[in-house]
Amino acid sequence: MNSNSPKFEYYRKAAATVIKALKARGFEAYFAADRDEARELALSLIPEGSSVGWGGSMTLSETGIVDAVKNGSYDAIVREKAATPEERREVFSRIAVCDYFLMSTNAITVDGQLVNVDGTANRVAYLCFGPANVIVVTGMNKLVANVAEGESRARNVAAPPNAMRLGRRTPCSVTGKCADCQSDDCICCQTVITRRSPGGRIKVILIGEDLGL
Ligand code: SF4
């Protein structure tokens, strides 16, 4: 994004407001002007040799953070390498006690709260507890006014394309509209509001770009 554009200026100023709110809630918080700066910042937060896991995320893909971790001097925990249910269980167990867990968020409020919906809930479980550190990377396009707006964004903006991306057979995959479904393929089984992060365990990187879903 052009750093002289009004939109970038808005993102930069709004990020400063959100960072202040996040810090008051115990999060560590940073601003990166673009995806490249975000990638380098995220990597600078992770000591070499750390065990690193991550949740499925368009933002992580677009920033190149996962590829950089896989190719860097880290103990990258790659879920895709697990071929059997036993191996998958082993991988999930390793992520549960890893040094750093990487993810994005479905929404972030101006007053510094994270809003996430999840189907299997491994991502939100690791956000809540387990990994020693969590790094949340998000474009400023996910900024919302309050938790209610965040829940609406998660259901009506993020979930339908995510359900399509994951090949889920849900009403929103067909119509593009949330039907508050009870499908076995539903990716909205859990809604987690993260309103505080004692000791800076969760580190949030706000990016001055539109990223992810
Ligand atoms: S239709 Fe189901 S899976 Fe799709 S957004 Fe609504 S609750 Fe989530």
Brief overview:
This protein is α/β, with parallel strands linked by helices. Helix content is 40%, strand content 20%. Strands 1-10-7-4-2-3 form a 6-stranded parallel sheet, with helices on both faces.
Number of helices: 8
Average of pLDDT: 97
Strand order of the largest sheet: 1-10-7-4-2-3
Strand content: 15-25%
Poorly predicted sequence stretches spanning 5 or more consecutive residues:
none
Could you say what the CATH architecture is? Answer: 3-Layer(aba) Sandwich
The number of distinct β-strands equals 10
Overview of the molecule:
By secondary structure, the protein is of the alpha/beta class. The protein has one domain: NagB/RpiA/CoA transferase-like (Rossmann fold). 40% of the residues lie in helices and 20% in strands. It contains eight helices and ten strands. The strands form two sheets. Strands 1-10-7-4-2-3 form a six-stranded parallel beta sheet, with helices on both faces. Strands 8-5-6-9 form a four-stranded mixed beta sheet, with helices on both faces. A hairpin with a 4-residue loop joins strand 5 (107-109) and strand 6. The protein is globular and about 50 Å long. Bound molecules: iron/sulfur cluster. The site of iron/sulfur cluster has 15 residues, from helix 7 and helix 8.
